[in-house]
Design the sequence.
């Protein structure tokens, strides 16, 4: 029994231990195991071997893998930027609405947020399909050549990534815009700023907490996306997540998959820390 | 100023159409006789009939519900306790606790699924219903905790002190005062956990073994084979309906105190 020495009372431990214990065993330990197993040899039966090795980490010097990593990063950056471009004006609009419309729009944003991820991707797969309605319309308008397809391209991956993650950008930005003091905008206008200038110099800095949260909530999950490139992307739009799944399932080489997953985990940590540090630095300033 | 408002209105309407159009197309096509949904060939229920005759789908549905029903109460209890601890105490321990609760919300699902797979393989655990259940409890805890933390913001803890002053034991105060007042929040977060559990694909995909296909995993393999697309439409439409009902009920449970 842990007692007062740690600074926490017995009552606090009783409340904390069930959830903390569960998360330490089934979340923290498995996450650390990724790093350990990445230094293990693979076993022929698809299990984990008994010896230590650096082989799997050497895979990171493979130019193909670096290209894949680069693609993953730029797709994630592009998806984050597009989400912000749509979500910031939306947050601005929602904050200026009456309570009724605010709640109505919020509900319309939350419904797709809770809808099954797989179904939403599937809906797009059907729309972008070469025999689907959209391709037919675009072809008849000559916007799409007879041989061109929408599905299985990096553009399709980006489109569906934005679709799936947009609510994650809208919700924190709306929360920040709702708290924003709009009289500051009037003050800026009275002092002679143009509407655009006021928007960029007063509103945007005013909601930067929300912008940071939105970046974190979009960029980090997109970095690890697997399902979307798997279903609507082709060979040319694979992301790091697809490679991890391929090593884990098709090749059944768990240590090599671990080395890749460790790289992804490190990238996620760096991105999260960077966004978080910037935010706390700004709060202090 | 007017112009900027017009711009943001257009973006908002555009985004809402963007959100819902694919879902509407999907539901409409589930009643469409045409196989590819390129044209409207007339109303039909045959895809739904085909769906209900599909034994694999029904077995997967049953497994999915079983896991959700078993994972939800455990996550609700653990998450509620976590929220109480985080709300009442400010200590180093709670900082670490909060980090453990929040990290699963940000980390890509792929990493969580893969790390659990490794954990189960390394500890020699047979993949199956139990491993799926463990994974589901794990990711639901964070959601329950965050919902309950928000609810506790307007909970009056002096009521508990009052009960204690009037001679109630700690346990009595918790059961007679705290629990009835927190109940709507617990129920709301349980409904959300249930929704998350029946919807999860990525994590489940990693930790499910042979013969333990859940509904989303089943949908995925049907999609991969690109067969029976309209049947997936029908199944998706039903799942969509279930999600909306669950989320709306949860919403209503959280609401009334505010209005």
Sequence:
């Amino acid at each position: 029994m842990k007692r007062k020495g740690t600074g926490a009372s017995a009552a606090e431990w009783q409340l904390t231990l069930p959830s903390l214990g569960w998360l330490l065993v089934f979340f923290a330990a498995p996450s650390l195991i990724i790093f350990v197993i990445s230094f293990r040899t693979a076993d022929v039966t698809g299990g984990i071997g008994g010896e230590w090795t650096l082989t799997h980490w050497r895979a990171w010097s493979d130019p193909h893998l670096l290209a894949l990593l680069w693609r993953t990063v730029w797709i994630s950056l592009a998806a984050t930027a597009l989400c912000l471009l749509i979500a910031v004006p939306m947050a601005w609009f929602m904050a200026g609405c009456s309570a009724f419309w605010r709640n109505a729009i919020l509900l319309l944003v939350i419904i797709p947020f809770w809808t099954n991820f797989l179904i939403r991707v599937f809906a797009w797969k059907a729309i972008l399909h070469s025999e689907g309605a959209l391709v037919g319309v675009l072809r008849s308008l000559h916007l799409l050549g007879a041989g061109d397809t929408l599905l299985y391209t990096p553009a399709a991956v980006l489109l569906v990534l934005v679709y799936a993650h947009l609510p994650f950008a809208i919700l924190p930005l709306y929360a920040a815009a709702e708290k924003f003091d709009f009289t500051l905008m009037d003050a800026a206008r009275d002092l002679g700023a143009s509407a655009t200038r006021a928007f960029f110099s007063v509103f945007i800095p005013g909601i930067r907490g929300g912008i940071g949260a939105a970046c974190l909530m979009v960029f980090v999950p997109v970095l690890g996306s697997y399902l979307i490139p798997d279903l609507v992307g082709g060979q040319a739009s694979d992301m790091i997540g697809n490679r991890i799944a391929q090593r884990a399932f098709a090749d059944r080489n768990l240590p090599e998959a671990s080395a890749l997953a460790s790289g992804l985990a490190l990238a996620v940590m760096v991105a999260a820390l960077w966004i978080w540090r910037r935010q706390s630095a700004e709060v202090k300033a | 100023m007017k112009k900027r408002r017009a711009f943001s209105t257009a973006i908002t309407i555009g985004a809402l159409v963007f959100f819902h159009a694919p879902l509407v197309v999907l539901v409409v096509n589930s009643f469409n006789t045409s196989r590819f949904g390129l044209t409207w060939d007339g109303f039909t229920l045959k895809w739904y009939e085909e769906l209900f005759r599909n034994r694999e789908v029904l077995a997967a549905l049953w497994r999915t519900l079983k896991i959700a029903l078993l994972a939800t109460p455990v996550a609700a209890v653990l998450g509620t306790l976590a929220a109480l601890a985080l709300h009442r105490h400010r200590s180093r321990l709670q900082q670490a606790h909060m980090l453990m609760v929040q990290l699963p919300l940000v980390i890509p699902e792929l990493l969580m699924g893969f790390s659990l797979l490794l954990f189960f393989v390394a500890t020699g655990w047979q993949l199956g219903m139990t491993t799926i259940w463990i994974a589901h409890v794990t990711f639901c805890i964070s959601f329950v905790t965050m919902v309950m933390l928000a609810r506790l913001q307007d909970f009056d803890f002096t009521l508990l002190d009052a009960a204690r002053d009037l001679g109630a034991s700690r346990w009595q105060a918790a059961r007679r005062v705290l629990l009835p007042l927190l109940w709507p929040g617990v129920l709301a977060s349980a409904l959300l956990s249930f929704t998350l559990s029946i919807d999860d694909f990525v994590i489940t995909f990693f930790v499910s073994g042979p013969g333990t296909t859940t509904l989303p995993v089943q949908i995925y393999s049907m999609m991969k084979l690109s067969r029976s697309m309209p049947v997936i439409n029908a199944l998706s439409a039903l799942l969509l309906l279930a999600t909306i009902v669950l989320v709306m009920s949860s919403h209503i449970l959280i609401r009334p105190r505010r209005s």
